[in-house]
Design brief:
213 residues, alpha+beta, two-stranded antiparallel ribbon
Length: 213
């Protein structure tokens, strides 16, 4: 099964590799035990390095029985200042302001199957068919990256323009997914995992934080 996933991942990184995301200088701000960064270095449409400023951040929690469980700290980086008037406007402005990066730093060990279930739930809540490519391929790439350890960071990077977008998924200094020439609708659908219709009150709380940077 793992060899099959490797074949799937390789098929989606056959295009030139996206530059690996580099975390910039540390901020004085912390969420839980995670120190935020001021910026990341990503790539522009021509593949050249570009520094993206952190514009907002939030804590993703999940309610389990009577308790709130800390899941990850999200940081959003963009070439342009996003519109914080609403979640829909935030999502649209991130798409228009690419290159952009969403980083998720996990606050606990989590089995990758739970992460995939959460991504699927978010996509389905927003009317996205998770069994359709490229979403299924993205999820396969996440699965191939393995279980998550406390302190590990996911990066989902977007570059290009309003017609063609390159989407990259990276973690632990390795790229697992690279889709070149995606369209704006694909990017919009993936962004809905974080800035779409919330699947639960924990994501809704994180979105409220994202709108108040």
């Amino acid at each position: 099964m793992r060899s099959l996933l490797a074949i799937v991942v390789l098929s989606f990184i056959a295009s030139p590799a996206f530059a690996l995301i580099e975390m910039g200088p540390k901020s004085a701000t912390k969420i839980k035990d995670t120190t935020l960064v001021e910026s990341v270095t990503s790539a522009d449409a021509a593949g050249k390095p570009v520094v993206l400023k952190r514009f907002t951040q939030g804590l993703r929690q999940k309610k389990v029985a009577l308790f709130w469980v800390n899941v990850y700290v999200a940081q959003m980086f963009s070439a342009q200042k996003p519109d914080f008037a609403s979640i829909d406007k935030l999502r649209a402005s991130i798409a228009k302001g690419i290159p952009a990066v969403i980083s998720m730093t996990f606050l606990r060990d989590i089995g990758v199957s739970k992460i995939i279930d959460g991504f699927k739930e978010g996509l389905k809540e927003n009317g996205v068919k998770t069994d359709a490519a490229p979403y299924s391929k993205f999820l396969d790439a996440v699965k191939a990256s393995g279980d998550v350890k406390d302190g590990q960071t996911y990066h989902v990077a977007f570059s290009g323009d309003d017609k063609k977008v390159t989407i990259s998924f990276q973690t632990n200094g390795k790229e697992y997914f690279n889709m070149a020439d995606a369209d704006a609708a694909t990017m919009d659908s993936l962004l809905k995992i974080w800035v779409g219709k919330p699947v639960d009150s924990g994501l809704e709380k994180m979105q409220e934080q994202l709108l108040k940077p």
